[in-house]
Design goal:
It holds the Pfam family Dabb. InterPro entries: Dabb (IPR013097), Dimeric_a/b-barrel (IPR011008). This is Stress-response A/B barrel domain-containing protein. This protein is α+β, with helices and mostly antiparallel strands and about 90 residues long. The chain has three helices and four strands; from the N terminus they run βαββααβ. The longest helix is centred in the first third of the chain and has 15 residues. The chain is globular and about 35 Å long.
């Protein structure tokens, strides 16, 4: 299993509708890939949070191949670009 995690920092200028639309574009891509065991996203509510990340997006893929298929989908690059336009910072970890 691969836990594909994005830590996101949305600034005050990122309106909730813009933020949600950017995240929904990634969620829509997950619907097109097999082996998605789970998907979760939301705000960081830990008062000890570091680096001021405000949100997390976590997809659990059944295999590295499923993660790679997700990243190879048409629309993946555009979804990341859209997210980068709204978020001040994105940190990715698998």
């Amino acid at each position: 299993m691969i836990r594909h995690t994005l830590l996101l920092r949305f600034g005050a200028g990122a309106a909730p509708p813009e933020r949600d639309a950017a995240l929904q574009s990634l969620i829509a891509l997950c619907d097109r890939v097999g082996e998605v065991a789970s998907l979760a996203y939301g705000p960081d509510v830990d008062p000890r949070a570091r680096d001021d990340f405000t949100h997390a997006f976590v997809v659990v893929f059944g295999s590295e191949e499923a993660r790679d298929a997700f990243q190879a989908l048409a629309g993946y690059t555009a979804a990341l670009e859209r997210l980068s336009e709204v978020a001040e910072a994105v940190q990715v970890a698998d």
